[in-house]
User: Fold this.
Amino acid sequence: MTALIYRLKNDIVWLAMDSLSVDEDNRPIKYVSKFFLLPHLQCIICGTGNLNLVVKWFEFIQNSLVFKNVVDLNTHVQVQLKKISDELNNPINQSSTIYHFGVDKKNNKIVGFAYRSKNSYKSEKLIQSLGIKPRFEGGAQIIVQKGIISGIVDIITRLKEMDENLELEQQVGIGGEIHLVVLDKSGKYSVETIHQFSDHEQKFSEMLENKNVNRF
Assistant:
C-alpha cells in the first residue's frame, strides 16, 4: 500500500508517506492522502496495508467516538478496529497496521500507538524511534547525514526503486508525492509536500487508462 516513515520523540513526531494508491493487480488507480489529522484529539492517524481500513477508521472516530485525547482513545481501539476490519473482509494475506500519534497532555509529550492486524489490533505503545515501512536498513544513518527532510526523501526514493525491482505481485506500490506532517507537544501541526517523483505524470496517465477505476 505505501511507504511510511515516522520519527517519534518526546517533544515532536515527523510522519511522511507517499501518495500512490494501486489496485489488486498493483496498477495505479489514484493519488490519495494517507494520513488524517484530528485536531480535536491533537492526533494523527495513518496506516499501511488496506487503505479502506484507514479511511473507515477515521470515519468511525469522527462519527461515533467521544474522547478528548489520543491516550483515552487508545483504550477503545481494538474491538472497534477488529469489527471494521471484519466488515471490510480484509484479505488474510494482507497485513494492515493503524498508527496513532498524538499529544499526551498529562505527561507533556508526544506518544504513538500501533494496532496490527496480525495481533488482532491489540494496542502497542511505540518507543521513541525511527520507523520505516517497507523494511529498510541504514535509515538512521541517512537521517543523521542528510537531516530529517532530505533524509526522508532519500529513503522513500530508495524504497520506491527497491519496490519497482520486485516482481509485480510482490510490490506494495510507492510513488506520487511525499507528504510530511509534523506535530509537536504543544499541539501545533505543519503539513507540506516535500517531494514529487519524476514519474508523477506518467502514473497519472496510467490511472486514466485503468478500466478498474470508477469515474463519475
